[in-house]
Structures are given as structure tokens and as C-alpha cells.
Amino acid sequence: MNFSSNIKHLRRRRRKTQENAAFALGMKRSTLNNYENGQTVPNASVLLAFSDYYKIAVDTLLRIDLSRLSEYQLSELERGNDVYIRGSGLRVLATTVNSSNDDNIELVNEKAKAGYVTGYADPEYIKELPVFSLPFLSANRKYRTFQVSGDSMLPLPDGSWITGEFIADWHGIISGKPYIVLTLNDGVVFKIADNLIGSEGVLRMYSLNPFYEPYDLPVGEIREVWRFVNFISTELPATETSDEATRRMVAELRNELKMIHRKLDKNR
């Protein structure tokens, strides 16, 4: 059980003395000291008091060694993104940190993508990936960069690098926005997502290239979701001729009509 080490870690993380924390919890400093050193076993009411104080679920305080989580993961817990509180299926991410304990941005190139499908949750695999940082991105978010290939990503050039922010709670996926999704059968895909998880248990996936038909991706086939934040390429996105632009417009209208029909059918 990780309770003793966790409450000590959380108190120190908040830069609280035992006197400060004990006062807030309504107990003596010596009592808190006994809990932190594992000399006293907490009862249910004590566990709930610590859970309320630190805004972290009892199961998390008991089961998970919080000292092994990165700054990003701890911040997610403190923001309320806790699987035991929200029932949202919070995914604990394998990640790497720099010497300041800030999360790196790992780089998954085209060759590494095949191994990523099976190694995404393996800390030993993740730590072998190249890493870098982007100073204009938030230090309180977790990012990873993937290389894309194929014409379904158009207008992004083949070989572009797309960076995404890790999404722990899939119910928060915003329909109509682009996401990088690690799937069980198709590996890493970059699509516009229509969030139907609550109603149908799927993400409806639309390629950036409207010539590709949308398809439904069941939640059971999803392994990770990353919200698109930027891309890097050595090429400019290709310009279109008037004929290509017309075909694209027709394809986009066709996809929009399909979405409207599906929503109408659903509401009947």
C-alpha cells in the first residue's frame, strides 16, 4: 500500500509543513506524522479526509506510487482527471522527463510507428525514442510528435511531423477537431474526429483528404488519443488547381451531408 509515502509526497509537493497540513486536516501533527511514516493504519474516515484535502481518490492514494508519476501526470490528477473519481478511464502514460523533471516531447518517426503500436505503454520502449522540446508549448501538458505518411493526410505533406497533446479523458474529445489516434488495428492515424462515444461508443473518423470515406472507430480499438497542436514540414502544403479545389469542395459537402443524415436518423 502506497498511502504513507503518497501523503508525504503530496504534502512536500505543496510545500506544506506537517503543522500546516495537520491543521487543515483537523488532526494533531503527531497523528499526521504517524500516518506519513506508516506507524498508524488509517480508517475509512481518515482516508476520505486525505482524499478531500488532496483532491485525489482514495483508490489512487492506496494503489498508485505517486512519486513515480511525472509532473504532467500529477497535475492531471490534481485537476480532477482521476479514473476513480471521474470514471473516465484515465490512462497512465509511459513518458520520459528531462533533468528538471519536465516532460520531454518524444519523437515517433515513420520507422518507429510499427513498434509504437505494441510499445506505447512500455517505459523501456518509450525511453529509447528521440526527445526534444518546444519552448512555446505549455510545461503543464504532455506532448508527443508523430511522423505522418500517405495521401489521406493531405493537405499536410507526406512525411510531416505532427505534435499532439495527450488526452486522458476521451469523453472530452471535441467533434470536428483533428486528433492523432493510436488504434489497435491501423496503428497511428491522424483524423478529424466526431465524438460519439457517449451515444454509440465510437469515434467517427474523417480524413483530412475528403476523398476518403469516414468510418467508425470503436472505443475498444483505441489505445491513445492526442489532440493536434501543430505540425512541422520541410514542404509547404500543396496548392490546388481549380478542378482539384472543386472536387475537394464536392467531397467535403458530401461528407457534411452524410453527417447531417446520420444525426437526423439518430433523432428520429
The average pLDDT is 83
Regions with little confidence, pLDDT below 50 for 5+ residues: 84-90
| Gross geometry | elongated
- The counted number of beta strands is 9
The helix fraction, in percent, is: 25-40%
List the strand order in the largest sheet: 2-1-3-4-9-5-6-7-8
H/E element order: HHHHHHHEHHEEEEEHEEEH
What's the CATH H-level homologous superfamily of the largest domain? Umud Fragment, subunit A
CATH topology of the largest domain: Umud Fragment, subunit A
Note the gap between the termini.
51 Å
Radius of gyration: 23 Å
CATH architecture descriptor text of the largest domain: Ribbon
- The first-level CATH class of the largest domain is given as Mainly Beta
Main sheet overview: 9 strands, mixed
Number of helices: 11
Plain-language structure description:
It is built from eleven helices and nine strands. By secondary structure, the chain is α+β, with helices and mostly antiparallel strands. The chain has a nine-stranded mixed β-sheet. A hairpin with an 8-residue loop joins β7 and β8 (215-218). α2 (18-25) packs across α3 (29-36). The termini are far apart. The relative contact order is 0.09.
In short:
This protein has 268 residues and is an alpha+beta fold. It is built from eleven helices and nine strands. It has two domains: 3-68, 434 Repressor (Amino-terminal Domain) (Orthogonal Bundle); 105-267, Umud Fragment, subunit A, CATH 2.10.109.10.
List keywords for this structure.
Umud Fragment, subunit A, 2 domains, elongated, 9 strands, alpha+beta, 268 residues, nine-stranded mixed beta sheet, 434 Repressor (Amino-terminal Domain), 11 helices, 20% strand
